Structure formats: structure tokens, C-alpha cells
């Protein structure tokens, strides 16, 4: 009887070890992918907001309050272009300014709300732009500044990022060691252990580290 109990316990232990080494990484990858994709989507929205902000203000912002207010309340200029100079008009010496004066073509500027123009996803809420998906209220780290390129050109830059531990927070109990492994792999490869768009230290054309 005792031998049977021991064998059952041993079998259960072996089954658990098999799960830990085979099934658990698969389940972790699936759960991580859901969260990874959600964070990437949010960072793309942050990038879209920052690029729009710069187009209006001439620089990026490192303030969530400023960026959220811009998306919720500000507008973007939209140039309406109706008509164009024909070949015959050009041959006759017409300029666009003259055609505008005569009313033959139209060029004017309209304004459209940032939120309605750029963020058409159902349920989009500017107030949630800073929040890390699955992060239980934690916010992305946001910075902005200027870096000087090797050729001496000053470039406006921004950076928004979150650590793996933030968006994988609810997986830490069951998959803590696998998250630790991911963080260590990033450290060994001299990479940021998380998701990031833009860079505060180099001009990278606002690229995300998933791209």
C-alpha cells in the first residue's frame, strides 16, 4: 500500500515537471502575446499622438497631461485644395497666387479635432492613453528632448516605454520564472526588457523596438 502511494505521488510529481517544462512555456507564450499585442497597439497610438503634437507645436512633449489635453481638445490643420493650374494657364504665365486671386482654384485651411481625425477606434478614450494595458493602472514612462546627430543636427525626440513586469504583472504568480528569463535575455543582449517606441538617446525616426 505504501509503495502504491509513493508511486502515485512520484507519478504526480513527474507529470507536474513535464507540465512545467513543456506545457507551461506554451501557455505563457500565448498569454504574453495577448498582452504584447495590446501594448504595441497602445504605443502606436502614443506615437500617432506625439507626431501630431509636433506637427502643431514644433516639438514633442514629455508630459502626459499635455499630450492627453492635446488629443482631447486640440485640432489639426487640413489644407483644402480644389483645382490646379492647367498647362495652358502655366503657358499663359498664370501663377497659383493669381489663380487664387481670380477664384479659379481654392486653397484654404480647415481644422479638424485630433481625436476625431486620428483616433477612430470605437471607445477610444484620450484619458487612457498613458495607461499600460494589463498594467493595473500603471503608466508608460514618457520623455521628450533633443539629441544631436553625428552630423551636428539637433533632432526633437520622444520615448514611451514600459517594462515587461508592468504589462505581464498578472502573470507573475504562475509564470514568474519565465518572465525573469525574458528580462535576463534582454539584459544579456543589451536590450530594454520591455516595449518601447522612440528613443530619448538617439534619433531613430520614432521606431518601436518591436519593428
Beta content: 15-25%
Helix/sheet category: alpha+beta
Q: What share of residues is helical?
A: 40-55%
| Sheet with most strands | 3 strands, antiparallel
Number of helices: 7
How many structurally independent domains?
2
Rg over CA atoms: 26 Å
N to C succession of SSEs:
HHEHHEHEEHHE
- The strands making up the biggest β-sheet line up spatially as 3-4-5
Mean pLDDT level: 87
Low-pLDDT parts are none
N-to-C span: 59 Å
Q: Which overall shape is indicated by the principal axes computed on the Cα atoms?
A: elongated
Q: Please report the total strand number as a whole number.
A: 5
Question: How is this structure best summarized?
Answer:
49% of the residues lie in helices and 18% in strands.
